[in-house]
């Protein structure tokens, strides 16, 4: 056990640096994915000709194929058509496109959860469809979608481990590099798992805090 403690102490700075990169990738992909997911959800709800069909195909393709395959397509496949990306942009792009598909469905469900009378009341006051969505429906849909959005972020934190296959230095790749030097896979993989768990638990607490604040604001 003392050997493990010494190993953890030596490896901790490298693992924490990898965890910081993991968190950064997850947050950037989440922000970009939320913006894209909201746009996709609104296009599908509005049932815009052609665009809604394209949005539905995008969501189906992203949700129906493994993230690892999507990473390979973007990093190794796109250079074949003249578009070459460095590992970090390729990883962020893959994570963003993947999580946006799931977020769009969460947001679409949140929009569907808003009472139909809200639409009717807004239209009776002279609001347009987009004004109703922006000022009345979307804020309520976001509140309803907080649990599923938070779950997507927690899943995204774990999914960042897949970008290590294209040499993006995050927690998993940092762990593998330390293992290559120490030949101690079990304690180091356990340490990485503990860090992922801690990050997930942190965002679970943040999720509950946000839910409580939104519920209090809604009751006032």
Q: What does the model show?
A:
Residues 19-207 form the ABC transmembrane type-1 domain. This is Amino acid ABC transporter permease. Keywords: Amino-acid transport, Cell membrane, Membrane, Transmembrane, Transmembrane helix, Transport. Its main location: membrane. Belongs to the binding-protein-dependent transport system permease family. HisMQ subfamily. With 220 residues, the chain is mainly alpha-helical. The mean pLDDT is 90. It has 8 helices and no strands. The radius of gyration is 21 Å and the shape is flat. Helix 3 (67-77) crosses helix 4 (87-113). The chain is 84% helix and 0% strand. 31% of the residues are buried.
Short characterization:
The chain has helices at 2-46, 51-64, 67-77, 87-113, 116-124, 129-159, 171-182, 185-219. By secondary structure, the protein is mainly alpha-helical.
Keywords:
single chain; mainly alpha
Indicate the topology.
Elements: H1 2-46, H2 51-64, H3 67-77, H4 87-113, H5 116-124, H6 129-159, H7 171-182, H8 185-219
Helix pairs in contact: 1-2, 1-4, 1-6, 1-7, 1-8, 2-4, 3-4, 4-6, 5-6, 6-8, 7-8
């Amino acid at each position: 056990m003392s050997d493990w403690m010494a190993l953890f102490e030596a490896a901790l700075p490298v693992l924490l640096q990898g965890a910081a990169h993991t968190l950064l990738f997850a947050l950037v992909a989440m922000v970009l994915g939320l913006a894209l997911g909201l746009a996709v959800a609104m296009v599908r709800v509005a049932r815009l000709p052609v665009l809604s069909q394209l949005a539905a195909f995008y969501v189906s393709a992203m949700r129906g194929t493994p993230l690892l395959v999507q990473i390979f397509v973007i990093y190794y496949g796109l250079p074949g058509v003249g578009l070459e990306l460095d590992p970090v942009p390729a990883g962020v792009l893959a994570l963003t496109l993947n999580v946006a598909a799931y977020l769009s469905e969460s947001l679409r469900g949140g929009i569907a959860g808003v009472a139909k009378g809200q639409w009717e009341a807004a239209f009776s006051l002279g609001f347009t469809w987009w004004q109703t969505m922006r000022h009345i429906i979307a804020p309520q849909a976001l509140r309803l979608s907080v649990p599923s959005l938070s779950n997507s972020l927690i899943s995204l934190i774990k999914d960042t481990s897949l970008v290590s296959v294209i040499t993006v230095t995050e927690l998993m790749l940092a762990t593998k590099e330390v293992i290559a030097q120490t030949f101690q896979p079990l304690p180091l993989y356990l340490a990485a798992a503990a860090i992922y768990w801690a990050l997930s638990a942190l965002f679970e607490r943040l999720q509950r805090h946000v839910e409580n604040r939104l519920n209090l604001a809604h009751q006032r």
